[in-house]
Amino acid sequence: MGLPRTLQTLSSILDAEGPSNGLAFLNEGVLHRYSAIYRLSGLTLKNVLLHDKAGKLRPEYLAAIPFDSSYCQFVVRDGQFRTDNSAADTRLRGYSYPSIALSYHSVPILNPSGEIWGTLSHFDTAALPLPDDEFALLKGAAPLLASFLVEP
Fold first, then answer.
1. Strand 103-110's sheet: what is its strand order?
2. Quick check: 133 and 105 in contact, CB under 8 A?
3. CB half-sphere exposure, 141, CA atoms < 13 A
4. Mean pLDDT of the 61-90 span
């Protein structure tokens, strides 16, 4: 049996093993292949950390993504974004960019001034749900990870 799926467990992992292992812990509790942290840099999202459940190296197409072609734009606009199946999500009608993520669940990472620094996400090329308790853990994880990633 794995470690308890709590913010306290995540905090202990972050303190002892750093953000890469913290991201891996978050990914262990979900069906999604990828868990990632992206940094907003101008009009581009740059991948800072990526955990791939399949253990592969980061594909080049996930290294940097144009902001206006990403679902992260909705995280910035709405404060979070969840879709189990982007192909069937009516909120995305008219969204012309062919996304590589059918399922995408994400929250913002804020800097100390409360501005969006980037995003923390679970995503997959398959349509997958994310249980509410795992989304709550993702939301709680963002400020914990921010303390390791964002310079004051």
1. 64-66, 44-52, 34-41, 116-124, 103-110, 81-83
2. no
3. 32
4. 91
Over residues 91-127, the pLDDT tens digits come to 888 775 556 788 999 999 999 999 999 999 999 999 9
- Residue 34 is encoded by which pair of tokens? 């990828």
Q: How far apart are CA 26 and CA 54, in angstroms?
A: 15
* Beta strands at 44-52 and 34-41: parallel, antiparallel or unpaired: antiparallel
Q: How far apart are CA 51 and CA 36, in angstroms?
A: 6
Q: Return d(Cα 6, Cα 4) in angstroms, integer.
A: 6
pLDDT at 97: 57
φ/ψ of residue 13, rounded to 5: -65, -45
DSSP 29: T
Q: What distance in Å separates the CA atoms of residue 77 and residue 90, rounded to the nearest whole number?
A: 17
- For residue 34, list its beta bridge partners: 52, 123
Beta bridge partners of 65: 45
3-class DSSP assignment, residue 9:
helix
Closest listed residue to residue 7, CA positions, set 145, 141, 146? 141
pLDDT digits 0-9 by tens, 28-45: 999 999 999 999 999 999
